[in-house]
Amino acid sequence: MRDLADLAVELALKMGADYAEARFHEDVSNMYMLRNGMPEVAGFVRARGIGIRVLVNGALGFSSLNKPDRTLLERRVQEAISMARASARTRKKPIRFSEERAEEARWEVKPKEPFDSVAIEDKMALLYDIDRVLSDEQEIGARIPFRLLELSESTSTRYFVNSEGARISSTVPRIMFLAVTTVLEPEKGTEQDMVQKGASGGWEALRAWDLMDMLRERLKALTKVLKEGVSPPKGKIDIVLGSEVVGLMVHESCGHPYEADRILGREAAQAGESFVSPDMLGQRIGSELVTVVDDPTVEGSYGYYLYDDEGVRARRRFLIKDGIINEFLHNRETAASLGVSSNAAARASGFNREPIVRMANTFMLPGDHEFEELLEDVKLGVYIKTYGEWNIDDRRFNMRFIGREAYLIEGGELKGPVRRPVLEITTPGFYGSIDAIDKNLSLDAGTCGKGDPPQGVPVWFGGPNVRLRGVALGGL
Amino acid sequence: MELRELAQLALKEALGLGADEAAVIAHRSISRQVRFANNEVTITKTWDDLNLYVLLAKEAKLVITSLANIEPDAIRNALKDLMGLVAVMKPRPDYAPLPEGPFEYKPISGLYDEKIAQMSDEAIDIVQEAINKALEAGGKRVAGTFAFGVEEASLLTSRGAEGEGRKTRATLVVRALADGEAAGMGTTCGTRLRDLDPASAGEEAGRFARLSLNPEPLKPGRYDVVFGRPACAVFFDIVAGMTSAFYVDSGLSCFIGKLGQQVASELLSIYDDARLEAGLGSRPFDDEGLPTARKAIIEGGVLKTYLHNSITAKRHGTSSTANAGWIVPQPWNVIVRPGDLSDEELLAEVRHGLFVNNITYVRFQDYAKGDFSAVIRDGVFLIEDGELKKGVKGLRLSDNVLNILKSIKALSREARQVSHWWMEWGSPAVVTPLFLAERIGFTVPTK
User: Fold this and answer.
1) Which structural domain, as residue segments, surrounds residue B342?
2) Rounded Cα gap, residues A206 and B404, in angstroms
3) B112 pLDDT above the threshold of 80
4) What is the bridge-based pairing of β-strands B141-157 and B333-336?
5) CATH class entry, domain A2-228
């Protein structure tokens, strides 16, 4: 089908496209799921196909097919062009792409332990072993009546070609683990935990996660919160946020609103727009301690790539630098609209999706404090280590995160657990309240959703632990 | 190769390789989409897909696959791999055989419209009409998606189920903005072109956006709320989704242990009806080949059933409700029984409260309890003496699914089919009126 991708570009140009690109993807994934100790399902997906995108008279058309048939390919290329041409009349301003170097490259992630080097029995055995630990009421301290464990391995092989001469081939294996658990204490009710790990690479990445210990510790801590957690303090206090919370907050309140397609209104009907406008570049959004980057080139990361799905070479992007709005995330379309170059943020979740502006690995850079130093002059505060419920409005200005594992801070020391502290805060309120950042950078995996039809792409998000001064907790 | 031949080939191969049971779905679709923003079309898309889905069972062990490569050799190799996988799995204590066929499937009317199947460039005119109406009604910038397509499926099982069907569908979502914060939304959808009303969807989006101009902050607290249809669709999608036995058994539902109990106001009845004429989710058979039927999920506020496939049904000691999903049972068309008030009369019931047109980003602190919060948007208004008084900003819906269900005080009489992007729990469509609920919680940021 790779030849058909080349042919698609050739055909599109012959049929009148001003620009054409084609991506051939071959995606293989295996999935194993254990629910409450029972093998819920195992299976695999073998998908392949070609996605074609054309620019005609300043309008974009896309089509995809998963059958390697030349006649069908011609029909789909023709339709992409004819629909784009028909839609061009609605456009006052033609779509243009930024000028980029036509790269020719091949890149790949080589797993140290390929997925097929580990027996399926051993993969299932790992899930059974984890489930056994989680079912041990004495070990955890409470009953975990609901345990959903999922393991997936996938390998995406891609070939990108465009009418400017770019040709990029890549292969990336990824591994993902998800656990959803419910702690039950008859007198106190339930608390739930959801944790996802992910990486590019082979089975070696999973070994490094030490899943058994990680889950045991999380659930023991959550049990303590459920049994002993007190109501959070009222009024203005200091709040220390754990890496996991900081990571999701920067993903949601810095990554998303700095996506230039949202800023320009292209996602308005679904995910929404942004409180950030192009003229806010250079403006202060937070304390000078805050620097947030998005970096696809972090080796081993879940969001890893070296060239994006428009063939542009990836690099680290400094979204907030020393508290100043520094850079947006761009694909070639948004870059041309704002008169800059693409910074390689175009990603497509599969062959049958258009490449749109996405994050890769978004994180706040660490500071110079020790964790204990964040606590030491806090008279009264809360340390929110992990989160449960969270959301953010469609302009990415008004967000809320409820702590799962959280502790009281009194006189500079961590005390007992606090149950469900609600942090409901504006984006400038968050970045403007940070007065100390520790050295401990940690990153977590997620599947970021955006686009219509939705595109879930693998990402990391993370950060150090940070301290917010003088913030009241929310809730009713 | 025709879909039926493809399914036959895969079924024969699977049984030939030693599977005890197999179900096969061959599925072909051509889908199209016109996306727009800032009053312009941003991209047009076409998808041409042919996929094969296979479930195999051997010795009470289950495995599944999805294949895009439908060359006979590729199918054969994939099925061999699948048999290799099943060999190393452990048996399921809850294993249940596929339903014993053959079955007779009665046709459902109104599921196919050649005009939608053949539509291509003409879709631009429909989008243009919606944009123009939204602008006329007060929107300044209009965005949305018009998605439409045709699909056909052939299902065969080793227990003698043989089903075939084709359907068309179209969904138009229009979101208008009058400035950065003032937004409105309108939707229209159906299986037939004549079911669509792009002008009304555009008008509603534009009107709500205009009415939302200059929104004001409001104090956090508890308010009586009338939910608009996009919000009702999101909410009842969650309610119906949470009755899937898979979620019940995974701790991801607030209906655990509540069968036969009063879980909602007695005014509320919700049905799942896969046989709805011209329903977006209508289908004569489920993924195990069982004939579908209308059933009450909640009737008079009482939880009547969970949604089951054969395996979840066995686990619960009951029969399948024909909602398979090989892994996750799911609702088909969620239908909320209307009340007897007009939309305006429902609003008139509220002396001081809120109108919330859409809810998005519903996220749970505890699924088993039902505690959640959600972003409200696309027309959020203060109601004073039954009138939409002014736009409101900054509030977040923060409450509990069961509490809202029990707080329902009235429903309007006009139910419409709704489908949009923020329905995340798997219902293809919800047919819903507006509803009024009392003393619902709203919070605001503290800084």
Assistant:
1) 215-443
2) 41
3) yes
4) unpaired
5) alpha beta
